[in-house]
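Record type: monomer structure entry
Structure origin: computed from sequence
Chain ID: A
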Amino acid sequence: MTDTIEKPESWLTRVFSNSGVLLGLLLAALVYVAATRIWMFVLIVAIVLSVFLHELGHFLMAKRNGMKVTEFFLGFGPTIWSFRRGETEYGLKLVPAGAYVRIIGMHNLEELVDTEEVQTYRAKPFRKRMPVVLAGPLVNIVLGFLLLVVVFAGFGHPSADTWSVNSVVVDSAADQAGIQPGDRIVAFDGLPISGFDNFTSVVRAHAGTTVDLTVERDGRQIIVPTTIGWTLDDSGAQALAPLLPGDQVVAVNGTPITYYADLVGALGQIEGPVELTFVRGDTTFVTTVEGPIQMPIEGFRGFLGVGPKSVIVHSNVVEATGQAASAFGDTVVGSVQGMGKLFSPAGIG
């Protein structure tokens, strides 16, 4: 008679077979991540929730179509906790990297008893298999749409037509007129202004002119008389390389320049090296060019000197639903077009 000596379990085996220890490890890891890298914690929760809902779609449709689902678990790896209800085991596993559903008979190599064959995925007709396949992605699509509605209605979105002053360039026309950060410019000489691009186009066409800006400040409207400044446009900057479009010449050989016409006259009369003082953004530079220079008559554009900040607007649920549908449609169209370009002959080449 031979006695069988059982090999003792290793400490690692005992640890990973203890549900309490596994649950403690999981909670400790999540608390550590939440305390040190909250963005990673939020990302983990978002991924797990998204995959869980995806798998839930497969699960519900498989059940509805008469397929046997033996497992529905959150996470992967060693099992922390589980229970059985009917023919399905539900539970939580150690690694929070998603979720999974096990439907029997997903491939032809899986061996099952004859009594289970009628409940397999492979035994069902196409009209019952395809909804199971599509249910997961459909849940994610609906979830994405609902999140867009929440964003538009709850968090708001930047308005395409409404903006406020975020910054004012020092010594610019706006600064001299008293425009302040937080102001909203709503009209230009009585002309209503919508988006910042529209406002910029109007300003560029009125260099050197004095206009009335209608400004909203602290809940009331005021009229601010403003003389629009100027900067070089493409042709003006090209004549004064290395200057760039948007630069403003403020002095020639130390003599202040107020208007573009002063610059044209000065550069046309001076021969030899010419010292130019110019402003780019909030910084003043000095460079030297060779005169005389024939400047283009229309080598400038209007410049006010304000930077925009988008105003966040909130929509009601009905408006948010329409905006979400539009944004979702644009995303789908853009994705399809991108895939088309990627796999087109031009994209492959």
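Annotation 1: The two ends are 76 Å apart (CA to CA).
Annotation 2: The domain at 234-297 is CATH 2.30.42.10 (Pdz3 Domain).
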